[in-house]
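Marked as duplicate of an earlier ticket. Keeping the data here for the record.
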Amino acid sequence: MRNLKQITISAPLILIGLLAGACQTMGHNETITAAKTSPEPVAKSVMIDLPPNSLLSLIGSEYKGTDEAKAAQNIFYSEALPLAAQYGFKRQADLRVTAVNVGDFKPKGFIMTSWPNEATFANFQTDPKWPEYKAIRPDIWHDIRYYRDVQENGLQLKLRADKYYTLAIAYLNPENPEDYQTYLSNLEGDVTANGGKFILKMKAPTLESLSGEPTPDQLTFIEWNDAEGVDKLLGSAAYKANSHYARSGTTKFAFYRLEAAI
């Protein structure tokens, strides 16, 4: 039995640096005073580039924050994550939750991670060391939701610090399963008009959770040029004309506003 009270937590830090240069010019036989100009600021970004059949995962958690949780988390981060890395697990990007508009699950953020493929993830789960680490997860989190989806065609996804993101998690109504897709399709033009674009849809993902949460049918990410874009959409005539499809097409729905934590 591990003595969790003797462990202290340390959090990894990721630093991203940007390099910029400036140039000066002088004319021949002339004295020229050149105005120094600053280059346009380059937004920090992270690129996710996954080959075909990679397993993309999205992890959200509600952290307990107790001394026992901190000690258990230190064990999990320092031992379980390096074990996962041996099987190809990678942390790709962090998304900070800025608002929970709809939903009873309230994580501080979501983490995008990946595995080379489903087989490597399955091999990790059968590693004899994993059950010990898996067993301490309830000591760390009230709930953890781990969505996984195979990217059959691969994935190229760039997340930027100067953009804004929304995540919709939909549980489809079996009586009207096409209504939600009608809702999304009918709004696509207005999403674009308000500075947004669909960047990722995880359809029929696998969900693992501590709470036994049912598996949703689709996770939809939209990137926005500014924070007001989604509010403009929600106030538009097109949204009001099509929102009934979202209601009739789902039995449960969650909606998060996000920013890339870079």
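See parent ticket for discussion. Residues 3-36 have pLDDT under 50 and may be disordered.
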